[in-house]
Amino acid sequence: MDNKIPVVSIGLPVYNGERYLRQAVESLLAQDYGDFELIIADNASTDSTFTICREYAVCDKRVRLYQNGRNLGSAQNFNKVFNMSAGKYFMWAACDDLWEPSCLGKCVTRLEANPAAIMCTCDTQHMDQSGNKLGLQIVAETAGMDAVQRVHRLMTYLGGFILYGVIRSDILRKTSLVQPKFGPDIILLMELTLLGEVVKVPEILFFYRFVVKPLDQYMSSIEPGLKSVTKPCTGLLRDMRRVILESGLPDSVKAAAENEFMECLMLESLHWKKQILCENIMELSALDEANLKKAIHHLIAAGDDSNPAP
């Protein structure tokens, strides 16, 4: 590559991704907005991942390829590709997703036109491992909203896939990045939510592939040796609340944001409420609605115990 700093850095962390990797890389290299670098970090794969990546690195000067000497886990590898980036904007890319050719350019244009926005995403088509269409996700943007309103929107339109949007690099550097915990994408999304607005391109430009893993396998993929947890959603909600309380927002805004977080959990985020009830059924099953609300608040505020599995 020449010495010109690209406008966009795309980071593709990958481990044993040979099944879909060619489709993903070719989808990225086919973007009609070409001022980007593609940083690929192979996490000591044991399949043909590195060989495939090397083919593209040889043929396209925008590709920067690195190979870890050992498997660092996905959390460290996601952070590595960002820390090596130079662009004004950054986008994470998974080795099994796809993008319309206009995706990157339209997101950059939207951010350039909205200096208050920290991130741009787009409507998203979910697909299964065979590429069959699943649900269509119409993403809700947060332009013009304050921090409390943005917390409400995150809790009611939650989806980790939003993290694969185009983000301002200087804003992303203010976060904790990807942490080795259950639901690190959601924790990071909460940090970003408190830092600013998200805008979107109202078109289906991103195709997100669902690959379901057992909990133990999921946790060890985040960080080798990371213990599983018995109450993953309870721990995740504690981490999300902690992000609010440890943010740099004024105390009055923190209090309002925390209250909105808990109100959404009880009244609007039925998925979260169901998970909390399932994980804590012994403590919560006999309570009426008024006492249930108090008990759930106590559970989420109960320190930083992540409930490691024995």
Distance between the termini: 50 Å
> Sheet bearing the most strands, described?
9 strands, mixed
CATH superfamily of the largest domain: Spore Coat Polysaccharide Biosynthesis Protein SpsA, Chain A
CATH topology of the largest domain: Spore Coat Polysaccharide Biosynthesis Protein SpsA, Chain A
Structural class: alpha/beta
SSE order, as H and E? EHEHEHEEHEEHEHHEHHHHHH
Number of strands: 9
Q: What count of helical segments does DSSP give? A: 13
Range of helix content: 40-55%
Which second-level CATH architecture of the largest domain applies? Answer: Alpha-Beta Complex
* CATH hierarchy class name of the largest domain: Alpha Beta
**What overall geometry do the principal axes of the alpha carbons give?**
globular
Overall pLDDT score: 93
Uncertain residue segments? 304-310
Tally of distinct domains = 2
Backbone CA Rg: 20 Å
What attributes characterize this protein structure?
Glyco_trans_2-like, 13 helices, disordered C terminus, Nucleotide-diphossugar_trans, Nucleotide-diphospho-sugar transferases, 43% helix, alpha/beta, Spore Coat Polysaccharide Biosynthesis Protein SpsA, Chain A, 310 residues
Summarize the structure.
43% of the residues lie in helices and 18% in strands. Keywords: Transferase.
Describe the structure.
Residues 9-129 form the Glycosyltransferase 2-like domain. This is Nucleotide-diphospho-sugar transferases. The chain has 310 residues and is α/β, with parallel strands linked by helices. The chain folds into two domains: 8-215, Spore Coat Polysaccharide Biosynthesis Protein SpsA, Chain A (Alpha-Beta Complex), CATH 3.90.550.10; 229-300, no CATH class. It has helices at 21-29, 49-59, 74-83, 103-113, 147-156, 169-172, 184-195, 215-222, 232-245, 251-267, 270-279, 281-284, 289-300, and strands at residues 8-14, 36-42, 63-67, 89-92, 98-99, 117-127, 133-137, 166-168, 197-209. Strands 1, 2, 3, 4, 5, 6, 7, 8 and 9 form a nine-stranded mixed beta sheet that branches. Helix 2 links the parallel strand 2 and strand 3 (63-67). The chain is globular.
